[in-house]
Amino acid sequence: MIENFKLHVFRVVADTLNFSKAAEELHLSQPAVTSQVRSLEEGLGIALFDRVGRNATLTPAGKTLLPFVRQIETLTSDAIAALAPFGVQEEVELNIGASHTVGVYLLPGLLPALVREWPKLRIHIVSGSTTEILNALATHQVSIGLIEAPAHRPDLKIEIFMEDELCLILPPSHRWAKKSVLRAAEIVQEPILLRETGSGMRRFVEDYLERNGVLSQQLHTNIDMNSTEAILSAVESGLGIGFVPVMALEKAKSMGSVKIVPLENGPITRQFSFALLSGPVREGPLQDLIELLRVIRPSAKKTVKTGRKAT
After folding, report:
1. Residues 283, 81: contact at Cβ < 8 Å?
2. How many Å apart are CA 69 and CA 88, to the nearest integer?
């Protein structure tokens, strides 16, 4: 019989493709990791990795085994969680996939309640684009995906849990700082800071502009940035105007380091959703996280409303 620990070591090595990094994550020595993998391969009578020094690539057999191991770990964690009401106090793991905005600005406020309920819970957060998160969910790398772009996947259950607003921000000294409303056509007059091409946030902004007669080719986008924090800092420094989520503006609004200008035919809104594998969700940390997401709907709407009025 294959020991679960050996399978766990195999999965971590498969995720990192580096024995040294896997050893750090597992809090083991590198020789111990190598020994566990070798023992698993000998027990199966098949090679799972092709090794080049401390790095590794999965063999066809390793690629075949990996999704089954992910399912075993998910089921094991679910089983332990389901037994918690009967006094089982073993450590439980929850793997969460989250897009950037959700992972940085929303999850930190939800997780303390989850940790209080599950003091031995180990949480692993994987960040990425909506497509990357959904693929991670489908391959059992995460148990839930929190995404910020529309998605249609017949193999997954997707539920909207809140609405977010993208705000146009500019330095307080900008000539538009006292405008009560800004037309989309005016935006082409200024350097604009956007997320990188292909990002969901940029797509929402470009869709709004196109609906209001402005093509992306008309924009002065000399600088693209791959994070909300970078755009916010650049606007504060006077490099241009930019679009960021309203939930990222708490500190900047309190300090008065940026101004928010309402948009004609705005605001730009998008919906956050969580995605799950098909089938019932067992009682445990995952179910509790889902309930936390569902109950933030009223406060989310309030936050968006406040963001529109903060000018």
Report:
1. yes
2. 23
Measured between alpha carbons, how far is 67 from 138 in angstroms, rounded to an integer? 10
- The whole-number pLDDT of residue 184 equals 93
Q: What are the pLDDT digits (tens) for 5-20?
A: 788 889 889 988 988 8
Structure-token pair, residue 68: 């089954």
Counting Cβ atoms within 10 Å, is residue 143 exposed (0-12), middle (13-18) or buried (19+)? buried
Q: Measured between alpha carbons, how far is residue 241 from residues 195, 221, 246, 306, 310 in Å?
A: 12, 10, 15, 20, 16
Joined together, the tokens standing for residue 36 give: 């566990």
CA distances from 182 to 29, 33, 167, 249, 261 (A): 59, 59, 12, 19, 7
**Is there a contact between 267 and 166 (Cβ–Cβ < 8 Å)?**
yes
Q: Tell me the domains of the chain and their CATH numbers.
A: 1-69 (1.10.10.10), 164-268 (3.40.190.10)
Q: How would DSSP label each residue in 123-160? A: EEEEE--HHHHHHHHHTTS-SEEEESS----TTEEEEE
Q: Helix, strand or coil for residue 221?
A: coil
Q: In this predicted model, what pLDDT tens digit does every residue of 52-63 receive, in sequence order?
A: 776 789 999 999
Q: Which residues contact 52 (CB under 8 A, 6 or more apart)?
A: none
pTM of the model: 0.65
Q: Are 289 and 96 in contact (CB under 8 A)?
A: yes
